[in-house]
Amino acid sequence: KKIVILISGRGSNMQALLAAKPGCTIAAVISNRADAGGLAFAQSHGIATAVVAHRDHPDRESFDAELARVIDGFAPDFVILAGFMRILTAGFVNHYQGRLINIHPSLLPAYTGLHTHARALADGVKIHGCTVHFVTADLDHGPIIIQAAVPVLENDTEDTLAARILNEEHRIFPQAIRWLCTDQIELNSAGRVINRANT
Ligand code: GRF
């Protein structure tokens, strides 16, 4: 199986995926920002990279259309959002229906959107975590593939909590991709994930 990974920054999840050797080919790493640190990492590992800068496009639709054109040039089986900080149009999401994956730093459906750790701390929750899910037009609400939970500790700051969760992201993200690339995952008619690896 071939995957393309989309990043916007350091790409630590992409790096963890590469290190985990998830049994698939990373055909390319693509970013919306030319200064994304993960691009240099991918290049140093001989992975093709590309930049589709959102600033070069007048609107979301034209950006997403160019992004899809570049992605499709690699003909991936799955498109993986890993720290990709753009909201994608329904047209883009529909084009990759059932093969577009995202990792989000919360236990969805709790804390959709941004600043999840600060919000969790502000609410005094005792358990927080991360989720890998299929992307649908309903932001951060797609079918869940895998989650991990961590305790929120008394003296946690946004940084200490984020670091504890990032560790778990780097474990569940490669696991989800491995399952996808070995055809263990399917969506049932109710839009729920069926995982043959767990049956
Ligand atoms: C991570 O917390 C991830 O869950 C979110 O973006 C953050 C940065 O990810 N989507 P990465 O280090 O760039 O992979």
Automatic annotation (TrEMBL):
Belongs to the GART family. GO terms for cellular component: cytosol. One of its GO terms (biological process) is 'de novo' IMP biosynthetic process. The keyword Transmembrane does not apply. The gene is purN. (6R)-10-formyltetrahydrofolate binds at residues 60, 85-88, 102. Its EC number is 2.1.2.2. N(1)-(5-phospho-beta-D-ribosyl)glycinamide binds at residues 11-13. It holds the Pfam family Formyl_trans_N. Keywords: Purine biosynthesis, Transferase. One of its GO terms (molecular function) is phosphoribosylglycinamide formyltransferase activity. Pathway: Purine metabolism; IMP biosynthesis via de novo pathway; N(2)-formyl-N(1)-(5-phospho-D-ribosyl)glycinamide from N(1)-(5-phospho-D-ribosyl)glycinamide (10-formyl THF route): step 1/1. This is Phosphoribosylglycinamide formyltransferase. Catalyzes the transfer of a formyl group from 10-formyltetrahydrofolate to 5-phospho-ribosyl-glycinamide (GAR), producing 5-phospho-ribosyl-N-formylglycinamide (FGAR) and tetrahydrofolate. The record marks 140 as: Raises pKa of active site His.
